[in-house]
Write a structure and sequence with these properties.
Elements lengths: L1 E7 L21 H16 L6 E4 L3 H14 L5 E3 L16 H8 L1 H9 L36 H21 L4 E5 L1 H12 L3 H5 L9 E5 L11 E2 L2 H12 L11
Parallel strand pairs: 1-4, 2-3, 2-4
Antiparallel strand pairs: 1-5, 5-6
Helix pairs in contact: 1-2, 3-4, 5-6
């Protein structure tokens, strides 16, 4: 059996403001830092000490990984890679979610957030947060730097890293922790569980909640969907993620 733990980063400064973040690099809030440390302590209590850690190059995920590993009491190496970055939300980045919901309607809002193959309008060249001006991506050909992405695009860029970096760690028998983002983790869960497009619409991954997958020798999940270490809290937090955008319009459940 192989063990994989998925963890969405702790609450970021823009999560707390209900903004589309994408590739914009923002830090954790103090609550997000607490979530990261709590995640590490939960892993330690469950006997799941990571032996290999993979995260994105974005600060909110990288810091979550570092804080969680420290709290777990392990010195596991941490690898960072842009292929684990959040989905690029194009022209939506930096905009408040309830404003987008109001402007474009519930159907388009949900499609942009949760569908498989619909990308938001592209961000302008040289606009705010253009990755072409970020030193972390200086060695990448410009054509690899997105201006918008669908979940299908995220899947296409993520899977090479999964196969080349994460899978070898799993096959070597290491307990692997992947700390990433809502949509990069949705793409990975969809790959693991072979989710259909309609199922993807209802897949919401909460911040700071470790999700355990036990995999067979072919890296097929023994339990489809895995198991959150705290299932009740994760279900409540996932429902809150689904409600983003409606909260500030006074239409939450």
């Amino acid at each position: 059996m192989r063990t994989l733990i998925l963890l969405r980063h702790g609450e970021s400064a823009w999560n707390s403001k209900n903004l589309f973040t994408g590739w914009i690099d923002v830090d954790l809030t103090s609550h997000g830092e607490d979530q990261a440390r709590d995640s590490g302590r939960s892993l330690r209590a469950a006997g799941l000490l990571p032996q290999s850690v993979h995260t994105s190059v974005l600060t909110r995920a990288a810091r979550t990984a570092a804080l969680a590993v420290e709290a777990a009491g392990t010195d596991a190496p941490i690898a960072r890679h842009w292929r684990l970055n959040e989905r690029h939300y194009g022209a939506l980045q930096g905009r408040e979610k309830s404003e987008i919901l109001r402007e474009f309607g519930a159907k388009r809002f949900r499609q942009w957030r949760r569908s498989y193959d619909l990308a938001p309008p592209p961000a302008p060249v040289d606009g705010t947060g253009d990755a072409a001006h970020d030193a972390r991506y200086a060695d990448l050909p410009r054509e690899l730097l997105p201006r918008t992405e669908s979940l299908a695009d995220v899947t296409a860029r993520l899977l090479p890293y999964w196969h080349d970096a994460v899978v070898p760690d799993l096959r070597a028998g290491r307990t692997v922790l992947v700390v990433a983002h809502s949509n990069s983790l949705r793409a990975l869960v969809a790959h693991l569980d072979r989710l259909g497009r309609e199922e993807l619409l209802d897949l919401n991954i909460p911040t700071g909640m470790p999700l355990r997958y036990d995999l067979d020798e072919d890296l097929v999940p023994l339990v489809r969907g895995g198991r959150y270490l705290d299932p009740r809290a994760a279900a409540e937090a996932a429902a809150d993620v689904a409600d983003q955008g409606r909260r500030r319009l006074g239409t939450t459940r």
